[in-house]
Amino acid sequence: MPSASSEQPLATPVGHIVDFVPGHAECDGGAAVPVRAESPFPAYAMGAHDLKPMSATVMFDINADGRPVRIVRQQTPPTPPYLYAPSEDVLPAFTAWRFAAGQPRTGCRVRFEAMATAAAEAPVTLVRRYYVAPHQRRGDQAALFRRIHPADTDCIESGRPRIRLRAFPAFEDIPQAPGTWSYSMTAFDIDRSGKPVRVRLTEPGGNPALDRASVAAVRRSRFAPEARRGCTYPYHRSATEALVAPAMPDKARYVAEGARCPDRDTGWTFMPALSFPAGFERRRIEGWAIIGYDVASWGVIGNVRVLAAEPAAAFGEEAARIVGASRQAASPAGRTGCVDVVRFVMPEGRMTVAEGE
Known about the structure:
The chain starts with 13 loop residues before the first strand and ends with a strand. A hairpin with a 2-residue loop joins strand 2 and strand 3. The strands form six sheets. The chain has a five-stranded antiparallel beta sheet. Strands 15-14-17-18 form a four-stranded antiparallel beta sheet, covered by helices on one side. A three-stranded antiparallel beta sheet has the order 10-9-12, with helices on both faces. It contains five helices and 18 strands. The protein has three domains: 135 residues, no CATH class; 76 residues, Fusion Protein Consisting Of Minor Coat Protein, Glycine Rich Linker, Tola, And A His Tag, Chain: A, Domain 2 (2-Layer Sandwich); 105 residues, TonB (TolA/TonB C-terminal domain, 2-Layer Sandwich). The chain is elongated. By secondary structure, it is mainly beta.
């Protein structure tokens, strides 16, 4: 038996930034080239240097409008040990992809390769994107903030510039496709009067209109009268218009012959808190699911099954959870072959879920 002194010490975990890089999309009929591809938000992971994160393979079809539908993440059991990196934005980001219209395809797939780099060594462009994108604040947030500035900056250590006026773009006038997100990282110096000078973009952020408006906003900003160099400021634009779900078929198509579940006799007495599948509400992506189920005579729901869901299977999984945890009124003989619709709808300004159609 080895002694304690001969055991290998555990590697000290370090923070990593994980980027999910898509490969080539392929369908049964060959390559499928997107006309728009949305990148998932980078993720953060703690672990040893030699651990690798899990990549993600997405299965899908393409409808006549060129949008991916029937999206499913292929589940591949990981081989431990591996670097755990939250990847809940992979499916929502992919849902915003678009292919050529009028060319429906089936049997498609694309692999998102998870590329992990220690945060202290990651390319500055990746650090900037991670820092601006939605993420949980970590213990090394200050170090990441330092990395998005030039080496000779005096805009951090001596205290951040005191803001007199922070100008913002008119975001509502900047186009942003539903389901997508963009950002612009600006860099600038401050002269002795507190006016930004040498205002510039660190690199294009994917939305030229936002880039132009961001530079203009920084130029309108004002600070306390103290010269500084190497300052930065990010602006980002999320889509405000919801990405609506594909058309839904009539639920009557899914009602089996001999079902004993009158529509007017379902009587929901309890339903848990309703929520979107992880990541989809952040991109304002709507969906629906058609759920089949039975009801015991005392009102407990059973035999829950997803009959159809769009644009991703995640909406069916969440709807099945909601229906399975719900309750209906008691009845003498129970109900069988019930079919209901769960709609995940995001009106302007708030999120709601309409169910039981």
